[in-house]
Amino acid sequence: MRVLPPVACFLKDKTPHQSLCDCPICMEEFQNKELVQPFGVCDHQFHSSCINSWLLTGKITCPVCREQLFSL
């Protein structure tokens, strides 16, 4: 399985929505201008290395909402 390249740059908003600023896999805060990876249709965002590790284990669903990356 291929890994996904980062395709987005995280930019901090002025609003304090902490849960939107954390990677759901590692729970670490996204840094300003850090490259992140949106996931398929649902568009949840992760650190590129986190979501690639997730996908390399054979999982093809979003860790947050379980939306499938690929249609079967």
UniProtKB/TrEMBL annotation:
Q: Which UniProt keywords apply?
A: Metal-binding, Zinc, Zinc-finger
Cite the RING-type domain residue spans from the record: 23-66
Does Heme show up as a keyword for this record? no
Question: Which GO terms label this protein's molecular function in UniProt?
Answer: zinc ion binding
Question: InterPro entries from the xrefs?
Answer: RING-type_E3_ligase_ATL, Znf_RING, Znf_RING/FYVE/PHD
Superkingdom of the organism of origin: Eukaryota
Q: Return the protein name.
A: RING-H2 finger protein ATL5H
Q: Which organism is it from?
A: Cajanus cajan
Taxonomy, top ranks, is: Eukaryota, Viridiplantae, Streptophyta, Embryophyta, Tracheophyta
